[in-house]
Amino acid sequence: MNSVSDKCALFIDGPNLSATARALGFDIDFRRLLREFHGYGRLLRATYYAPIVEGQKNPLITWLAHNGYTVVTKVTKEFVDVSGRRKVKASVDVELAVDAMDLAGSIDHMVLFSGDGGLRSLVDAVQRRGVRVTVVSTIASQPPMIAAELRRQADVFVDLRQLRPRISRDPS
């Protein structure tokens, strides 16, 4: 149970949250999402992590940065794989993990929007510092969007489909 005096921070793996919402058939209304999590305690920060293509404008990133979110971006890297195919790569997991560890001493509750099993160690480390961790993803898709080890590590798992009525964008 959360206390209204609990200091809370949101860490949003942008690509992971987008893929999860898409798998569930809805779009996130980020204004409503922020409002929803203000009720989880004293929201100190909501950080959205996203890869970007250099030189391309991203209206969502711009909107988030002007509407209550801290935005952390990482420029994608292009490379050619061993088969000769061009690939694009960018992961924001390290940035998210570093920021979460930096903030862990100042919060009571961390809400992680990701299903990436690679973040299980981060959740464990933050919990050892006395922080409760809620992970938001889904098991409703096939395959599930959350790694079993991350779900087991979380203090609380919230299926994104439960939040849908309160955070989805109005289709009109």
Description:
Helix content is 35%, strand content 27%. The protein is built from 7 helices and 8 strands. The strands form 2 sheets. It has a 6-stranded parallel sheet with strand order 3-2-1-6-7-8, sandwiched between helices. It starts with 6 loop residues before the first strand and ends in a 5-residue tail after the last helix.
Describe the secondary structure blueprint for this structure.
Blueprint: E1 7-13, H1 14-24, H2 30-38, E2 42-52, H3 59-65, E3 70-75, E4 77-80, E5 86-89, H4 93-103, E6 109-113, H5 120-128, E7 132-137, H6 148-153, E8 156-159, H7 160-167
Parallel strand pairs: 1-2, 1-6, 2-3, 6-7, 7-8
Antiparallel strand pairs: 4-5
